[in-house]
Structures are given as structure tokens and as C-alpha cells.
Amino acid sequence: MEAEFAVAAKMIVLSLLVGGFLLFFSYLSSPHIEQWRNEFGPIFLHSNAHMLQLTITDIEFVKEFVVCKSIVLGKPSITSKVLGPLLGKGILSSNGAIWEHQRKIIAPELYLDKVKGMMNLIVDSTTSMLRTWENEIQSQGGIAEVRVDEKLRNLSADIISKACFHSNYHQGEEIFSKIRTLQKVLSKGMMGIEGLTRWFPTNENREIWKLEKEIESLIMKVVKQRSEASSEDDLLQMLLEGAKSSGGFNGISHRKFIVDNCKTIFFAGHETTALVTSWSLMLLALHPDWQARARAEVLEICGDKPPEADMLRSMKVLTMVIQEVLRLYPPAFFVAREVLETVTFKNIMIPKGVFLQLPIPFVHQDPDVWGSDAHKFNPERFANGVIKACKSPQAYMPFGAGSRICVGQHLAMIELKVILSLILSKFSFSLSPAYQHSPAYNVVTEPERGIILRIRRALS
């Protein structure tokens, strides 16, 4: 079986004792994936000393992979080992019965009808942020230089804190701050070998352990306050009720169930929106024609009113822009799965234990699928929807694929439209000379040196 697998996928063996994990997770810091694909083809197998990894960019393989909802493909065990302090055994990293249980609790809270009820919250939080931008513009003589990615992270944290914790959202903001610090520390340590360095008492590990304890303590403090007060209709309440029936899943305690899922929701809930909004503003600043088109559409639909749910559906240009940004800058770099039982894709038998990784940017920017302008910003390709945007709609996966597709995609899209429409209605912007293009993989794809814009009031 192993021999058949090795023949089907051209083999490259790399014995990398240090640095394997980050190397494979980002061509942004290394061109190896692109080099190997050019040399060995669109499907290649490699080893980083402790696991076999199959990298997939072949579109026919991708089609089968994306539509597969079988439980034989699960989240890789390395995810919980390397990112355990951040994700624990929450919905992003777990498999089997515990994953199904968590999804049944969390997904209904993020259905489209439920998310529409968060519109006022999103509008209010965004409007509050934009007032600070107006003050900066006034104090700087009509044009302000703003590092927008930091502002948008704080905005997303505010929104997810209120959506999850309602009356406890101030504690939620403190939790977010520590999770962000934990994310940065973990990103630094991803060059080490999983399983060999995680338990060494290094300075980084000590900081990780300290942050884990502080985050857990803060979350449980909120839980205690909630248990002593009247219940609220929010995601935290659903987690508390779901925790009561979570016992028996691989020994996961009620406490761990709550803590791990709160951490996961905070991390995933703020990163996607903040990053995609940041990249959207960067690309609109770089393409003033599309910025003008999107602004004109927003003003025509909304006038001087804040956006409402029905208005968002009419924003075709803005939707095209967001879809194109998600194509070029997907928040997650990989769709990653571990083969839990032997499976066959495209007549290739893949044994249990193999790690599958699908580098999303390679698929999203494949000229054979998206056309000769695949590497260019062209929202017009989405004028007739995703189905007509490329040769195969399965090649578009900004929110993941299969049964593990992101449960928060509806919330993310509504947030993106509300935030961008409010910004466009009030401001025009261009890239600052201080901006340095620096996409980097730090658990998610983010602008390492920030996104700095020159912002002024839009002419009405």
C-alpha cells in the first residue's frame, strides 16, 4: 500500500530535524512548495522526519477532496499538539463525537438568521471606531495616517466579545488581548519540532504556560459571574449548556470544553474579519477605480443611513470585491486533514496517518482554473457569482472545505460588508508611503508590518 502510494504521488523525502513545520506551512517565508510543485508535479509526498505529508494542487484531486464529507478525513493531530495552547480540543482541532457535539452547539448560533440579529451591534461598534478616525483626521489637518489592521483587530475583538459575552464583554476584551499575545508567541515557536520542544522549560514555553493559565482563569471568572446571574441569549450561554452534556468524550471536562471553545471562538471570530477587512482596504487603496465603484454603490443603496440586512444583499460590487480579496488573501493558508482510515482520491490510495495539505493560495491563483489574470486583483470575475468565476467552483475555498467548512462564514461576510460599507461611505483612502507589503504566516496570513493608509473624509 505504501509502495503504491509513493508511486502515485512523486516522492520527495526531506529529513528536516529543525524548521519542518513552518517550512511547509508557508511559501510566504520560503518558496519550497512552489519549487517542489514545479519539479515533482501538482501532487507530491514529503516527510519532515516524523510524518508523511501529501501536498495537493491538482484541480481534479481538489474537486474530490473538497466535496468529501467522510469522517475518514479529520483535523491533523499536529494541530492540537502545536497549537494546543491556542485551540485546545475545541471545534477547530477536534474530531469524531466531540467535534460533532461542539458543532451542533455552535453552528446554530451562527446561522444567517441569527447573525442578522447582530447587525446593530456591528454597526454601533464600527461607528464608534470611525469616530476616532474622524478625530485623527481633524487633528492631523484633514489627512491622517492610520495603521488600520490594529484598529480593525480591536474592532473585531469588540464585536465578538459583545456577541459572545454580552454584559461581560469588557472581560472578553481582556481575554482577546491575551489570546493575541499567545498567538504571537506560538508563531515564534513553530520552527521547533512538535513533540520535542513543547515541554522544555524555555522562556517561550514559560510564557505560553503563563498565558494559558491567565486565559483560563479569565474565562472561568466570566463563567462564574454568568452562573450567578440570569442567563442570556448568547454563545457563552449555549456553551455553558452544552458543557453539561459534554462528559465522556475522551475525558474532556466541562471546564476544558468551555475554555477551549471560548479560546477558539475568540481566535477564529476576530482574525478572519480583521484580516480580510485589512487586505480589502489595502487593495481598494491600490485600485482607486474599484474603491470609487464600491463607494458609489454603498451611497446609492444606503444614502446617509447605516446599512441594514436587506441593503447588504443589494451590494453586488462590494460583494465582488470581498470575494476577490478572499481569493487572493485567504485567512487560512492551508486546508489540512489527517487520513484517519485508508481512503482513495483520484485513484490514489492514501494510507491511514498521512497528512494532507492543500495550499489554498496555489489553488486560488492557478491560471489554468482562474485564467491568465489569476494573480491580479479583478473583482469583475465574480460578476456572475463563484460558479462563473472560474472553471471549477470547488477551486474557491476561502472558508475551508467539506464537512469542516467554517461555521462562522455568515457572520464574517455580514461583518465585512457592514464594516467596509461604513468606511467607504465616510472616507477615501490611499496607501501611505510608509506601507511595506509583508504578508506573513503567523498561524493566519497577516500583514507583518501592518497596513498603513492615508485617510481623508470622502466627498459627499
From TrEMBL:
Keywords: Heme, Iron, Membrane, Metal-binding, Monooxygenase, Oxidoreductase, Transmembrane, Transmembrane helix. It comes from the Eukaryota. It holds the Pfam family p450. Its cofactor is heme. The keyword Repeat does not apply. One of its GO terms (molecular function) is heme binding. The chain crosses the membrane at residues 7-28. The keyword Iron applies. Heme binds at C406. GO terms for cellular component: membrane. Belongs to the cytochrome P450 family. This is Cytochrome P450. It comes from Rubus argutus (Southern blackberry).
